[in-house]
Each structure stands twice: as C-alpha cells, then as structure tokens.
Amino acid sequence: MPADKIQHYGAALYEALRTRKTIAPLIEQDPSLTLDDAYAINLDFLSRRVADGEKVVGKKIGVTSKAVQDMLGVHQPDFGFLTDWMHVEGDIDIDAKALIAPRAEAEIAFILKSSLNGPGVTAADVLAATESIAPCFEIVDSRIDNWNIMIVDTVSDNASCGVYVIGNERLDPAGLDLPNLHVAVTKNGEPLSEGHGHAVQGDPAQAVAWLANTLGAYGVTLDAGDVILSGSLVPLAPAVKGDRFEMTLSNAAGPLGTCVANFV
Q: Mind telling me which residue stretches traverse the membrane in this protein (predicted)?
C-alpha cells in the first residue's frame, strides 16, 4: 500500500481517538487492505501517539478465546502495542481516557525479565522469560463504528486497545498450572462470568509465544520489562460510568490475586 494511504488511515484513527468520534470500518473503505497493510497502519497510528509523548511499555494479543471471537465475528487473534498512557492505576476516568464504547476483559498479564524474539518461541521459552504474572483487566475500545470490525480493522486500530489495569499481586508462574487457573468476574457486586486459562489458545503462555512469533515476522521483539496482555479468559462486557468490575484469579489451593476496574 502506498505510504500516503497508510498515513491517511493512521491519521484517521488518531483523530478518532482524540475526538472520540468513530470512523467507518477500514475494510469497507478499502476492501483491498491486507493484514500487512493493517499492521503498517497500526504503526503509523502508534507513531502519532509516541510523538505526543506516549512510551511503548508492552504488547497485547486479543481475540484469542472462542467466546470473544464469536462475539466480535473475528476468528483469528489480533495484536497491538501498550503505552504508558494506557496504564491506569486506580479508577478509570472514561472521559480523560477518551473511551468511546469500552468493554472489560479479564486477563493474565505477563511481566517479562528477558526478551523474546520470534520465530521459534515456545510456551516454555515464555515461562523462562517471565518474571511474574498478574491478574489484569484490559479495557478494549474501538475507534470503528459500532464495533463493526474485521481482523484488518482491529489490527489497524491497535487491536482495539483502550486502557488496562493490573492487580497488585505478582505471581511466580513456576509451578502454576496456567491452563487451569480460574477467573471469576463480578460486575457491580453480581456474578458476571467465569473462565480458565485454557480459554486462551489452550494456555496463556502459548498465546504469548504466538504473539512473539507473529510480531517477530515484522521485526518486533517482546522486550525485558514489557507488560504482555495474553487475552481474555471470559466474554468481554460493556462498561459505563459507575460500573465496577472485579476479577479473582485462583487455583485449586485458593485465591491468588484480584484486580478491580472501577469506571468513573
């Protein structure tokens, strides 16, 4: 795709983020768009945020579970970048973070102690490179009209990432059965959903390996210190001001940690 078209779509997504006004699906605007085009648009979109002072602090994989794929009608994972501006400590101010139509996803975050450079990364490599894991809410959002997305749209739109919150607990993954970790989510004090680690490509570590290998094809590494969001364990849930989501991550021995996403 010509550079000017990539810049056109990157600028449109950036403007949508800053003005909180959605745009028509990119694949409808240009049915010839490929996944490689989408990634190039993603990078242009990101470059505009970095120029504003944001710093890349991690990467994310999304649309990994069947429940989320069925909900969105996107049947392969997407991928994108995390910046320091996306990281929220405490309450989530919907207006300050320019969220349009946020939805909450309960995930496991990986904090890396060494880099991963695909191709050829395995789940075992991911565990060896991981300093800790933590319960996490990713708040996804879409700059595309009515969440009417296909894979090209969501990759272009930085994997529909809004913001994220990480719980206080830092867990050593060694000895943990990640596929069988359990998450229970409440919304406004009422049970909402439950899931297990195996909902994410069979194993959250395998999902991170997929991300390392996929980004490796574009010359991007997962770096020491990066936060990696491994994908939702449960169906995503719409959020509005006043909503409070809480997730509890546990194994057979009991609770391991919690995370709260409180919208104000």
A: none
Q: How many Å apart are CA 113 and CA 253, to the nearest integer?
A: 27
Q: Is 202 exposed, middle or buried (0-12, 13-18, 19+ CB in 10 A)?
A: middle
> CA dist 175 to 62, 126, 208, 214, 260, Å?
25, 14, 18, 27, 25
Residue for token pair 């913001």? 163
In this structure, whether the domain defined by 56-262 belongs to CATH 1.10.340.30 is answered with: no
| Bridge-based pairing state of the strands 130-140 and 103-112 | antiparallel
pLDDT digits (tens, 9 = 90+) for 12-61: 999 999 999 999 999 999 999 998 999 999 999 999 999 999 999 999 99
243: enclosing H helix or E strand: none
User: What would the pLDDT profile of 85-128 be if each residue is shown by its tens digit?
Assistant: 999 999 999 999 999 999 999 999 999 999 999 999 999 999 99
What is the three-class DSSP state of 64? coil
d(CA 227, CA 165): 11
List the structure tokens of 147.
């969440």
Nearest to 138 by CA among 257, 239, 19: 239
Q: Side chain identity at 199, as an amino acid letter?
A: A
Q: How far apart are CA 109 and CA 197, in angstroms?
A: 12
* Residue 133 CA neighbour count, 13 Å, CB half: 24
- What is the C-alpha separation between 251 and 69, in angstroms, rounded? 26
pTM of the model: 0.93
Q: Please state, in angstroms and rounded to a whole number, the distance separating the CA atoms of residues 204 and 1.
A: 34
Strand order in the sheet with 254-262: 190-196, 182-187, 244-251, 254-262
